[in-house]
Amino acid sequence: MNIQGIAINADAGLIDGDLEVLGRELDYYRDIGFTHVELSPHGVGAIRGGVLNQERLRELKTLLARYPFRYAVHGPNPLNLMNADPDTLDRPAFIASLEFTAALDAEVMVYHAGRYLAEEDFLLSPQPYPHEEDFLLSPQPYPHAEKREVLWEREKALLYQMGEIAARHGVTIAVENARPYLNAPGYCYGESLVLLARMIREVGHCSVGATLDIGHAYLAARRYGWNLYDGVEAVAPLVRHIHLHDNFGRCSASYERKQYEMAAMGRGDMHMPIGWGEIPVWPILQLLPRYSGLVTLELRPRYRDKYREALAAARAMFKPANERHAS
């Protein structure tokens, strides 16, 4: 394992398009000792209506020139290449995100795996959820199989097209495995690391790989009774980026958003510092001996005062692996 840097995510909701806030955060990250930062174009207000805002990009690059960081990029969370609605902006916004990534000289753009049913549609109408026992035996999500196949092929074709654009920019698209929800079983193929690996292999483009989000993987394994280690082994050769954070493996519903309540009960996608929850982080990472790239500590801002401790813990954990790689 060759960890080339440990990044911190500049939380999009915390920044909320305010470059003064971003500047204060970057000062903090620099003083702590981070070498890399994961930025999002939506967090800094660089994409508007699916188009890269060149003026904001120039302002951002002027700010970033004050810092020694290298960057990774997280594309807008709603991006969904499975979305076939002609009125949506997923494809142009994806391209704008790749342009943003290239403009920052970042090598990786994270993309949330395509959703058969988008999160914004969960509560719009009743959905034909599968019987729980059937889903646990074979995680076949709604909608019906024929439509799933069409959406799968759409995602595959568009990921290849985006891979061609990414290659021209010198960028790798890293498709992230999805967190599960109690109220939407099987909404995304990316809940399963095995299916994520299958998608990337079928896309078959050198500029399309995987982001392994260890917190999401643990939640999905606990939710559906999958073997976590088998899933990690399936996707391991394809991993180009890692998101590292902790939780207790207790799934929540999509509409549960109050972190102060959920944290108290140990539920949901908590994004805590490693060691705070129960994820077997090191045994998982040992299944990635050939990984070479960044690790992003994807933490919620509510743990901001613990970022220094989180970085120290990550460095201590990765030091033996990096020493073995160097030797």
Structure description:
The chain is α/β, with parallel strands linked by helices and 327 residues long. It has one domain: TIM Barrel (Alpha-Beta Barrel). Helix content is 42%, strand content 15%. It contains 12 helices and 10 strands. The strands form 2 sheets. It has an 8-stranded parallel β-barrel with strand order 1-2-5-6-7-8-9-10, surrounded by 5 helices. α7 links the parallel β7 and β8. About 3% of the residues have low confidence.
Number of helices: 12
| Share in helix | 40-55%
By CATH, the topology is TIM Barrel
- Kindly report the name of the CATH homologous superfamily: Divalent-metal-dependent TIM barrel enzymes
CATH class membership:
Alpha Beta
Query: Between the first and last Cα atoms, what is the distance in angstroms?
Result: 12 Å
